Each structure stands twice: as structure tokens, then as C-alpha cells.
# Entry
Amino acid sequence: MNLFHGYIYLFLGIITGIASNGFLKTTQGFTKLNPTIFCVISIVICLFCLSKAMTIIPVSYSYATYGALTITAVTIFGIFKYNQTPNLYGTIGLVLIISGVILLNLFGKVK
# Structure
């Protein structure tokens, strides 16, 4: 597999991670069966895709990118679905997370 395939797996991992984490609240503590099944299946697919991505992309890059994009997207998801708007400090934190991943991907070196 080449680098392109690694990024495809990473993208799929991010999408399924967003789906799993975004709908986790609907499980109501894993007491609702259908949302629980959806979340469990999507997180298993997410972890599979991340593991495939990490065979091609260095762990630090893939997991940092996954984490930052998933956190940011789930926060945006929470704003629209649950009307949970982050305060100023939360917004600054998200900007710092995204900035850190951009710096890592642009200037980080792996030995």
C-alpha cells in the first residue's frame, strides 16, 4: 500500500470516529440498544481503519490528526445537534489543537 491508501484509511477512521463519538450521547449510558450497536460497530471500524493507516503513516502523525479532527468535528456536531456551544477557552483550546496538528504535519520529522 502507498501513502494515498494510508490517508484513505485515516479519513475513514476519522469519519467513523466522529460518528461513534457524536452519537454516543444517544445511547444514554448504553441503555438504548440501537444507538449502542451503532456506536460499537462504528468504533470498531474506526480502530480497524486507524490500525491500517498506522502501518503506512507514522503513529504520531496519524493519531494526532485523527484526534484533532475528531475532537473538532464532535465539538461542531455538539453545537448543532445538542446546542452545546464552547466558551472562549474551549474555542482557544480547539484552535491550539488544530494549530499543533498543522505544525506537526508540516514541520515534524520522524527518525
